Amino acid sequence: MHRGRMLAALAAVLVLGGCGSGNTTEPVGPQSSSTTGSTNETSADGADLPDADPAFAEHFTDPVYDDPAGEFAPFGTDEGFDLVWEWSDRRDELGPTTTVADLVDGSGLADVASQLDVPERAGIPAAGGQVDAATITIGAGFSLLRLTGHIDDDGRRRTLQALDVLIDRYDAPVELVHQRADLESWPT
User: If you average pLDDT over residues 141-160, what whole number do you get?
Assistant: First the structure.
């Protein structure tokens, strides 16, 4: 569950349980916007997402690539958001030969990401299952692209596969279909 939604759920429990003020228009959490009442996750310095490599910014122009909260945005999931910020802080470790697998392994997520090829039953996704593997793979693929302006061939293939998993599972959300088309047209 996205952190913003978790905070909203916690606030609802507190209000319903008599522990809150009852003012549901008041934003909840340290990163809440005082003007809109929405919660946007940001880095410690207040930026929504780290600066993008010029090649990434030129090719991936849809607003979904700058959306840190969209359900189907590459950095809107907890996994995608955490990966892009972790590797932004570790940019000095990234180079022209860095792979998507390097990001996944370096973040300690290889066990979950290995589940990408294991089909998952309909219903609520299992923790550590194929849906989690897909969101991790998409987060890692687009993080590498955003931060370095490149993606390795196997990482591109796995990221496209991960997008297909979520496109099939969630009935082709336009954001995922658009990401797939953009990644497929990325020069190799």
Answer: 98
